[in-house]
Amino acid sequence: KYELTEKMEINGRTLYRIKALRAFADVKVGDFGGWVESEENLSQDGDCWIYRNAVVRDNAKVYDYAAVRDNAKVCDNAKVRGNAVVRDNAKVRGNAKIYDYAEVRGKAKVSDYAEVIGKAKIYGNAEVSGYAWVYDNAEVSGNAKVSGNAAVRGNAKIYDYAEVCGDAKIYDYAEVSGNAKVYDNTAVCGKAKIYDYAEVCDNAAVCDNAKVRGNAIVRGEAWVCDNAKIYDHAKVSGDAKVYDNAAVCDNAAVSGEAKVSGNAEVIGNAEVCGNAIVRGNAKIYDYAEVCGDAK
Question: Which DSSP letter does residue 39 get?
Answer without folding.
Answer: G
